[in-house]
Design a protein that fits this description.
alpha+beta; two-stranded antiparallel sheet; 2 strands; 28% strand
Amino acid sequence: MSGRPSFVTALLFSVVARQGPALAGRTLLTCEFVSHEDRKALDSQEGDAP
């Protein structure tokens, strides 16, 4: 070992579009870091949508 900390080699992130009354007809795009556990939970909920 080199004594350096190990880093995660693969990062997950999500680009999210948000709209609302406070944005007055505009769309806000955000970039959010997502854990592997969160991604799995989101994938499992996709089938639950009406």
